[in-house]
Amino acid sequence: MTATPDLRTARPASPDLLRSVFRQHAAGVAVITARGDDGPVGFTATSLASVSAEPPMISFGVGTGASCWPVISRTEHVGVHVLAERQHELAATFARSGADRFAEPTRWREGPEGIPVLDGVLAWLVCRIVTRVPAGDHRVVLAEVVLGDPAGGGGPPLLYHQGQFTGLRE
Question: How many structural domains does the chain have?
């Protein structure tokens, strides 16, 4: 049985309303990486989306206040890593402000275009940034896939739901 929406409890648009609604939306978890002048940068993203098959393109959002934004704002390439359910600690590390994201226990290597490629992920891509679209306090980054590997570490995907990392339930 589905609940009938109660229009009397509707609230005006606000950041809190948006966050509350999207806590109900389960999203896949990815880590975006790039090479900066002072070393690698990266962040956890739940906004990854497939945009186009021809040419193959993806999108993700990044806050302009994020520590990695200065690098993302000017780099030509990024790495996109789809995380497995067992990688919730990796997701938390890349989501944590001020963390040394590439220190142990994070395992990575330099990949094509100098992009940091994380070990053990479900799948990864290297993408060329096509454009960055202003969207409030974020930018939506559109990027064309250059190369990647869909056959990584295996296992179920990591999800983000109700403000926490979780997995699929049967």
Answer: 1
DSSP 8-state symbol, 25: S
Strand partners, 63: 138
Q: H helices within 118-169, ranges in order?
A: none
Burial of 100: CB neighbours in 10 Å, binned 0-12, 13-18, 19+: exposed
pTM value is 0.91
Rounded distance between C-alpha atoms, residue 112 and residue 61, angstroms: 23
Dist. CA 22–CA 114, nearest whole Å:
34
In a domain, 133, yes or no: yes
Tokens coding 52: 């186009």
Does any domain span residue 10? no
Q: What is the rounded average pLDDT of the residues 78-83? A: 98
38-73 pLDDT, tens digit each: 999 999 999 999 999 999 999 999 999 999 999 999
Structural domain span for residue 41: 26-115+125-161
Statement: residue 18 has pLDDT above 90: no
Whether residue 6 lies inside any domain: the answer is no
